[in-house]
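call fold(seq) -> C-alpha cells
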Amino acid sequence: MRNQTETDISPLEFCDPCFQKEKPNLCEIYKNTFTKINSIHFSQQARLTRLLNKLEVAPRIVERRWTCIMSTHTRKEFLDSIWETGVSVHTLNDHVKVLTRLYTSEVRRLGEHSQVELPNMDSWEEFAPKTRTWTQINAKRKDGKIIARVNLGNILRCTGVDGMIYYRANKNGNSTALVEIEKRAAYNMMCIIAEPTKIHWNLDTSGKLVLIELKELQNIPEEISSFLKRLSKKDAKLPGMIVFEDDDIELVRTALSCIKINLEKSLEPASISSNPKSEMPMMIKQLTKERLQTLLDIIKAMGGIVEIEESCLVISGKRGSIKLIFVDEDKSTQDGNVIQVSVSALEDPSRFSEILLMIKKKLALMDISFESVISQYWPIATDSDLQYVVQSAVSWYGSNPILAAKIISEGNKLTKIKEWHTKIKEGRIRSNLDTITLGKIIKRIESN
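ret:
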C-alpha cells in the first residue's frame, strides 16, 4: 500500500490523538523511517548524532524535514538506545496502542427501515454491515419527489458528476433525513455498525513476508488503512497484495481487531504470481499525464532537450544524451546512459528530486534549486500532493513570499487549494498545516 494514492494523507495527520498531551521529537512515519516533528535541544541532538554515527545511519532532508531511514535490525538497536539521548520518539508500536483506544468492539445495530427523500437520481448505495460492502439503492419518483427506503442510522453514498458524497440517515421528527458527512467520518461510523468478520494472511515462499490480499481490506477507516500503509513493504512483484515483515503480524492483527476484523492464517498455500510486466518498460502513453508533464517541464527548465519516443524519453545536454525508461519497480537504477525510473518515483517529491539529480549530473545541465522548482511544477492529483504543495508554500513564505505565491498559483492548483482551505475554515476537515499562513498567501495572490 505504500506509495499508493488511495489513502495518501500525511501520516502525521492521523497522529493528532497521539500528541494530545505532548508532541515527541521524532515520529516513525513509515516502518524504519523516523522524522523530526519537534525541536531537539542541541545537547540532545549531539547525543542523537553520536548514536546515529555509531549505527552508520546518515540523516537526510525529506520534504523539508530531518529524516533518518534505517534497516529493521538497526531500528531495534536505535530504539534500544534512544532513551540515553533524552530524545522522545513515537513509534508505530506506540501508534497502534492509541488506535485500540479510539474504537469499540460493540456493534451498533441499525434502526428501522424507513422512507427517505433523495436529492437527485444519481447512483445511490447503502452500506451493508454484514458483508461490509455497498448495495445499490432502488429509488423511485413519487409525487414529484425521489423516494427510497434505507435503514435509519446507516451510511449512504452518492456517485455523481462531483464524485462521491457521503450521508447518514438520521431521524428528523417523524421522518428520516439525510445529513452530509465527510468520507473520513463516514468510514469510521461504518466500522461501528459493521459486524465482526475475518480475513486471511499467508507467508511468501521465503517464509519471511506476510501477505494479505488488498481486496480483503476494502471499506476500512483511513486511520486503519494509513497505519497498515505505514507498516507495510512495497513489492511491485506481488500485485494485489499488501506485504509486511513476519515480525509485524501482531501489530497488523491488533490494528484490524480495532474494527472487528479477525486475522487468521490461511489453510491454503499462498497463490502468488509474479508480474512480468513490472520488469518491462512502460509505454510513455501509460504514464499519468500530469506526472509526465511535471518531469518534462523541469528538465526543460534545467536546459535539457527532450525527445519523446514510444517507450522512453531521450534527453540531451552538454555531455550527450541519455534514455529514461519507466518501470513498475520499487527502485530507480542507472546503467551507463540508461536511467530506469520507478514510476512510483513520479509521485514522491524526494524520489523525484533524486531522478533529476541523476539527469543533471549525467548531462551537466543547469544547477537549479530542486526544492523550489519541484514545488512550483508539482501537480495536485491526490491529497498527498496537496499537502506537499501547501507545506512547501507555507515554508517559503517567511523568506520568499513571491515564491510561496507562485507555488500555489501555478497551473490549476490555486482553485483546489482555495476549496480545501475553505473546508478547513468551515470545520468540515482538519489539518496540521499552517492554514493561517496559507490564508495570507491566498490574499496576496488575490490582491495582485
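Residues 1-9, 273-278 have pLDDT under 50 and may be disordered.
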